[in-house]
Design goal:
Largest sheet: 9 strands, antiparallel
Strand content: 25-35%
Shape: globular
Helix content: 10-25%
Structural class: alpha+beta
Order of helices and strands: HEEEEEEEHEE
Distance between the termini: 16 Å
Number of helices: 2
Radius of gyration: 16 Å
Length: 199
Amino acid sequence: MRIALVRLCAIIAVTLYTTLAGCGSAGPSPEQTDSASPPAREAAGHDDHQGHAHAGDPDHAHPTEGPHGGRLIELGAEEYHAELLHDEETHRVTIHLLDAAGKEPVAVPSAEITLQLLRNGQFASYTLAASPDQGDPEGAASRFETVDTALCDALCHDEELRGRLQVTISGKAYTGTIEHKGHEGHEAHEGAEHTGHQH
């Protein structure tokens, strides 16, 4: 069983390496999204578990990419997801709050959310302001954005990116883990580690 698990992990790593676009690839075109979000590049977040089953739940599959082409961050035991995107040209960083399936927007009445990255052994905090998406109810937002060169550069170029996202949804505080290791030539996200929930 242990050998089978090692083989499965190796297959997943090879699949990730060959299929996931890194910082040098463009995100979806405006025609591919329903929102007014700018084109963005994929960022670190939820590790890919594609192709494996959880004990007791062989049909359970983790979503790995959000509807805007970004990487997903788990919030809670997959109660919600956050999609993290960044555009290296404009330095815009965007987070979309999504449902458990990682598909539909979830609007919250927060004016901002906090993204923290581990830099030099300490967490540096970045505030993303509410930027209501088309279809969000009045007084709530499912999209949060900031333009921050240092944050965007870290998301694209940090060789061992680690961080966390803090958000409150329906009165409950969630912290999502952002972690991946190594940009092989900045063309693929390789060796991602997943720590968002227990299996």
